[in-house]
Design brief:
globular; alpha/beta; Rossmann fold; 10 helices
């Protein structure tokens, strides 16, 4: 049985990944959608009555969810053709001004859950399978007022690159998708509204549908990093070659 697994699948970019995985890989036996909100998952399932959509209601900030995911895989022994680690969130604000619980939860979801889900999934993957880890342009350099978020995404980028190297001999690819801001639920959850950040008010925005579509295609082609739009490709370049102290000053949110 061949399946796709998508985390954070109930809305925003995750929902776009659901649509694109189904469009690009219509012959998979099942599509496992992981998210906290059961009603959202059921709503997505209803949109595809001709597909075997499997809603998996899990809170990935809770370690018990990893045990449940592992149990489900053992019970069905599928081949995971595609794994999309999309679950994650950010918060805008200075570290000292925000509750520590939010910062820890961000690390738990953005890093701990991604690491756990990937590790649990790998024994069910084989040559030709691939992983898409949703990263961000925030991974390229630290950014004040998004200190923890940028740090978590730097982890995702490093994790993806290293794991891709490890899995080359097995023929399993890992791609880090590094988009800029998108008009999804992420902004409201992050506290990013018009006027809250000059940077976010002036940056060009990415199309979540195109991000999902193109990152999946590049992952299948064996690419390691996908950054949409020329503006963000340029940012990735300067973040690599300029001192991060200067990059932080120029790009501070």
């Amino acid at each position: 049985m061949n399946i796709a697994v998508i985390t954070g699948a109930s809305a925003g970019l995750g929902y776009e990944y659901v649509k694109e995985v189904i469009a690009q890989y219509p012959d998979l036996d099942e599509y496992w959608l992981i998210a906290r909100r059961a009603e959202r998952l059921e709503a997505v399932k209803e949109q595809y009555p001709d597909k075997k959509i499997v809603p998996v209601c899990l809170d990935l900030t809770n370690e018990r969810s990893f045990e449940e995911y592992s149990r489900l895989l053992r019970a069905s022994s599928p081949v995971i053709r595609i794994l999309v680690n999309n679950a994650g969130f950010g918060k805008l604000g200075k570290l000292a001004d925000m509750p520590y619980e939010e910062q820890i939860r961000m690390v738990d979801l953005n890093n701990k859950a991604l690491t756990a889900i990937t590790t649990i999934s790998l024994p069910y993957m084989q040559r030709g399978c691939f992983v898409v880890n949703v990263c961000s342009i925030a991974a390229f350099a630290p950014n004040p007022r998004m200190t923890v978020y940028c740090s978590t995404k730097a982890y995702v980028l490093s994790f993806s690159r290293s794991l891709r190297f490890e899995l080359k001999d097995k023929g399993i690819n890992v791609l880090a998708a590094c988009p800029g801001p998108m008009r999804t639920e992420f902004l409201a959850l992050a506290g990013i509204e018009k006027g809250s950040s000059k940077t976010f008010d002036t940056l060009p925005y990415c199309d979540p549908h195109k991000v999902a579509e193109r990152s999946l295609k590049r992952a299948a082609q064996g690419k390691g990093v996908y950054t949409p739009r020329a503006f963000f490709k340029f940012y990735r370049f300067i973040a690599k070659y300029l001192p991060h102290e200067l990059v932080m000053y120029l790009s501070q949110t």
